[in-house]
Amino acid sequence: MNLEESLAIDLEDQLSNLTADLVALESNRSFLDRLFSIESSKWVNLEPLCSELNQIKAEIAELRKYFTGTIQVTWLDYPDAVCGEGFCTIIFFVEELHWHSLALYNQQLFFKKQIQYN
């Protein structure tokens, strides 16, 4: 494996870690609030959805040293999930890198928690 391939794998790992944190960490809840306010299946730029998340913004800025493309994100209802009702998929995509990540997410639980916070 040459240096360029090694950097590409490392970049993909970093993107995967970033997107996993966006979906999994409670501190990044505002990202999900904004994402789910957008119509299902509509692709949007990730960065505006993270405008309140300083750690995520810093990570994206670091990743920007290695690619210039847009990190796109969308979500889709997933009514036939083996896990039960209320799930969706969240898809992240960087066309320039041919990189993607998909997360299965319990949107119903997210909305229940949202009611508790309000």
UniProtKB/TrEMBL annotation:
Keywords: Coiled coil. The keyword Coiled coil applies. The keyword Coiled coil applies. Residues 1-28 form a coiled coil. It comes from the Bacteria. This is Uncharacterized protein. The lineage of its organism: Bacteria, Bacillati, Cyanobacteriota, Cyanophyceae, Oscillatoriophycideae.
